[in-house]
Design a protein that fits this description.
The complex is a heterodimer of chains A (about 260) and B (about 550).
Chain A (H helix, E strand, L loop, with lengths): L4 E3 L7 H13 L10 E8 L7 H5 L11 E3 L14 H4 E6 L10 E6 L2 E3 L2 E4 L4 E6 L5 E5 L8 E3 L4 E5 L4 E7 L6 E6 L3 E6 L5 E7 L2 E9 L2 E11 L4 E2 L5 E2 L4 H13 L1
Parallel strand pairs in A: 2-18, 2-19, 5-8, 7-13
Antiparallel strand pairs in A: 1-14, 2-15, 4-14, 4-16, 5-6, 8-11, 9-10, 9-12, 12-13, 16-17
Chain B lengths: L1 H66 L2 H12 L6 H15 L10 E6 L4 E5 L16 H7 L2 E8 L3 E9 L9 E8 L2 H11 L2 E6 L2 E6 L12 H9 L2 H6 L5 E3 L3 E7 L10 E6 L9 H5 L2 H6 L2 H39 L13 H18 L10 H4 L10 E4 L62 H24 L9 H19 L3 E9 L2 E9 L2
Antiparallel strand pairs in B: 1-2, 1-5, 3-4, 4-5, 6-7, 6-10, 8-9, 9-10, 11-13, 12-13
Helix pairs in contact in B: 1-10, 2-3
The chains are: A mainly beta (about 260), B alpha+beta (about 550).
Chain lengths: ~260, ~550
């Protein structure tokens, strides 16, 4: 399996792993697997039917996002869809049955017209540290978030913000309309991971217990919640992929089949 | 007088009309200039819009050269396979190929920056954009134009980063059965060079703005580029214009009453950031009628039909001079000649009938004045030449005729009544004759029934029998009434025509005829001559 990116959320009393994960995310490198922890592997399906809201909005004629836009005929039509870059945009969270303590600060990189990651699921009280990796300033603000007013972040500078409460938060940039960052504050979240381009994901060190795996995209839940019970051994859920979006072809057929019947 | 005064009015009216036409022409010219400016601005805006789109398309076409490079395809495919880090080998290969291909692009179509982006949005290699030097994790994957290119579309965009960039992107394919290996992104900085080229090729004065500031401006020769700096002050206002915010293009706006401007929002991500461009023009206006002189060039001046202008001037001057000669110079000369004659002693009085208008009144007044002076004992004057006063007298004492040439338009018959000879007048014999009222006089009019003013100093008239005197007075009274009635019938003005003056005239003429012809008395009768009332004097010797 390809390397999996992982955000530093951990069960209580495992701060070392959180720090390693945060540093790994900030550096954009692979989080090393922890041999003694229980591994839970999974697979996301139908993620190509998701649509990036920013890119979709850019196609709105009222927004005049371009003066011309044409498909390249040599690219297959089924690939010419603005599905998200799931390693950054789709987050899979393991949610326990009890509230979790806020982890150490999590680094969020700002650059290239978006944040890395784009969606984050953390317990309330988690401190986020925004690092500007672009060669120009950004002006982040929280949409309807009193504690996150517009403020400049210069090149290489950071800006801190603590998730105030449970809920969904959206962070935008006054100077870069394409930048949208979603924070889901879930009190019971134990760990969040990101899939690779194929949709494969892996939780590296889940302690024994019962969890619910939930995928998030664009700050919202996508796909069904998948209950998981960890009992001292690795789990592989890849045989039953989590469908993060309905299959349009099958959905389209259903009404026709009904008519035929 | 009438002609010249009429001419003055005509000239004044013509001058007024000319001024009116000038102001009218100024307003129409300025309005036409403003309309032409608006049309030109719309044309400029359209041309600039087309240029930007065409330029983006042409540059997008240049990206094919990069996308067709096998090394770039392989390098991006290899980079996309690695989710952790871009392999150094891939970076170097793509970088070398970017440089090589970029050298093959025409200078006019070269980009300021070219980025090779892998499927993860990471910049594998780049040309230009040195701000990103040393940033190994520099990426562009979040921008819609890059995302579109990575998903199989070619398109343009305008990004406002540290500066404003016109950007085009297209996919780079390695395996046509899978997603594009990456994308190639070209960026052209919107700077002074860009706007200068744009202005040279479109002929438009254009300025780009972003974040409330002008970022670049270019203008054709003859247009002060600094004028475009004024758009900054207008940016806040134009944001509230509905056409601008919804349709992306403002109406024609005028800054400081001079500079005409149309604003347009730039397509792309910059649309939401308020970035755009403005085309400007200065109006072709004169402002005031004198402005025509400033704006007219030699060609305009040569087109003026000077012979017609000169002819009008000469005609107007000639008419004025002619009217002036007829109504001022000639009467004055005549008056002067008569006055000179009088001064030389060739005449004791002026002949009012020779003059017109005010000169006639002046002559009459002068004559009256002379009479008054003489009555006060002034220097004796020789007897009046009756031949000139009354015309040729008959050799035999038959009839003599004289008239009271009158001008109905001039008040006072006395003005046209020939003056009496200056020799001493005999005193009126007998009792004072009743003085008839002047026509139209009221009973209570002051002086209407008062006795005539006593003429001081004249010697007494030759004595006559009281009966004759009474008969003569009665006759003269009758003649006076007949004369007044005849004048009224002829439509002449009788206002101020008094019996006293009439009587004095009769006395003078009677004395002259009596002395000349040795007549005993003179009979006066009324007749009509040339449509006017006149008197005939017939000497009677018996």
């Amino acid at each position: 399996m390809k390397a999996l990116q992982r955000v530093g959320l951990r069960p209580r009393g495992r701060g070392l792993w959180a720090a390693v994960a945060l540093a790994a995310l900030a550096a954009g490198v692979v989080v090393p697997r922890v041999a003694e922890a229980a591994k839970v592997k999974g697979l996301l399906a139908n993620f190509r039917y998701l649509e990036n809201a920013v890119w979709k909005d850019a196609l709105d004629p009222k927004k005049r996002g371009f003066s011309f836009r044409e498909p390249v005929p040599t690219v297959r039509a089924d690939l010419r869809k603005l599905f998200p870059h799931i390693p950054k945009e789709v987050c899979v969270a393991a949610i326990a049955g009890e509230k979790q303590k806020a982890p150490k600060p999590i680094l969020i990189r700002i650059g290239g017209g978006r944040t890395t990651p784009v969606t984050l699921v953390v317990p309330p009280g988690t401190q986020l540290q925004f690092l500007n990796t672009d060669p120009f300033k950004h002006r982040l603000y929280g949409v309807d978030v009193q504690s996150f007013q517009p403020g400049d972040t210069a090149r290489g500078a950071t800006r801190d913000w603590t998730v105030p409460a449970a809920g969904r938060f959206e962070i935008r940039d006054k100077l870069a309309p394409s930048l949208r960052f979603y924070v889901v504050a879930e009190p019971n979240v134990v760990q969040s991971v990101y899939p690779n381009l194929k949709g494969e994901f892996q939780f590296g060190n889940l302690p024994d217990g019962e969890y619910t795996l939930q995928a998030y995209f664009g700050g919202d839940k996508v796909g069904p919640a998948k209950p998981v019970k960890v009992e001292g051994g690795d789990l592989d859920l890849s045989k039953e992929p989590i469908k993060v979006a309905p299959d349009p072809k099958k959905d389209d057929k259903k009404p026709e089949e009904k008519k035929a019947n | 007088m009438v002609l010249s005064r009429f001419w003055y009015v005509v000239v004044a009216l013509v001058l007024g009309a000319a001024a009116y036409v000038l102001f009218l022409a100024t307003s129409m010219y300025d309005r036409a200039g403003a309309r032409a400016m608006g049309e030109a601005l719309n044309s400029d805006m359209q041309v600039v819009t087309w240029y930007l789109k065409d330029d983006a398309r042409m540059r997008a076409g240049q990206l094919i050269k990069f996308a067709a490079s096998e090394d770039i395809q392989k390098g991006l495919a290899k980079a996309s396979e690695s989710e952790d880090k871009v392999p150094r080998e891939a970076r170097d290969k793509v970088q070398a190929e970017l440089t090589k291909v970029n050298a093959q692009i025409d200078e006019d179509l070269k980009f300021d920056a070219v980025f090779a982006v892998d499927q993860h949005g990471r910049v594998v290699a780049r040309i230009g954009y040195d701000q990103a030097s040393g940033m190994e994790d520099f990426e562009l994957g979040g921008y819609p134009v890059v995302a579109d290119a990575l998903h199989g579309y070619v398109r343009d965009d305008t990004l406002v980063l540290d500066r404003v960039y016109r950007v085009v992107g297209r996919p780079v394919e390695f395996d046509t059965s899978s997603l594009p290996a990456g994308a190639i992104i070209g960026a052209r900085m919107v700077d002074e060079r860009f706007t200068r080229e744009l202005s040279q090729r479109t002929g438009a004065a254009v300025a780009f703005y972003a974040n409330g500031e002008r970022v670049a401006a270019g203008a054709p020769e003859g247009f002060d580029r600094a004028q475009l700096d004024q758009i900054v002050a207008d940016l806040d206002d134009v944001q509230s214009e509905e056409d601008y915010s919804v349709k992306g293009r403002s109406k024609v706006r005028t800054i400081n009453g001079m500079l005409g401007v149309i604003y347009a929002r730039l397509p792309g991500e910059s649309w939401e950031l308020g970035a755009g461009y403005a085309v400007g023009r200065l109006p072709n206006a004169v402002g005031t009628p004198l402005g025509f002189f400033n704006r007219a060039d030699d060609k305009d001046k040569a087109a003026v039909k000077l012979p017609i202008v000169g002819g009008v001037v000469l005609l107007a001057a000639a008419l004025g001079l002619i009217f002036s000669f007829i109504e001022h110079t000639r009467p004055l000369q005549l008056f002067r000649a008569e006055a000179q004659r009088m001064a030389k002693g060739e005449a004791d009085q002026l002949a009012p009938s020779k003059f017109r208008g005010i000169y006639r009144k002046i002559a009459s007044d002068l004559n009256d004045g002379v009479d008054h002076v003489a009555a006060k004992g002034g220097a004796p004057r020789k007897a009046a030449d009756l031949g000139k006063v009354l015309g040729d007298l008959p050799a035999q004492p038959q009839m003599s005729a004289f008239s009271f040439p009158g001008d109905a338009s001039v008040s006072g018959v006395e003005a046209s009544v020939p003056s009496a000879p200056s020799h001493p007048k005999p005193a009126a014999p007998g009792p004072a004759r009743p003085k008839p009222k002047p026509p139209g006089a009221q009973d209570d009019e002051p002086g209407a029934n008062s006795p005539p003013p006593k003429r001081p100093g004249p010697p007494p008239r030759p004595s006559a029998a009281p009966d004759e005197a009474e008969q003569e007075a009665a006759e003269w009274q009758r003649v006076f009434e007949e004369f007044v009635a005849t004048k009224q019938q002829c439509g002449e003005n009788v206002e101020g025509f008094t019996y006293e003056k009439f009587e004095q005239t009769l006395i003078k003429n009677k004395d002259t005829l009596v002395k000349r012809h040795g007549a005993k008395r003179v009979k006066f009768s009324v007749y009509v001559k040339d449509g006017k009332a006149a008197l005939k004097a017939s000497p009677i010797k018996e």
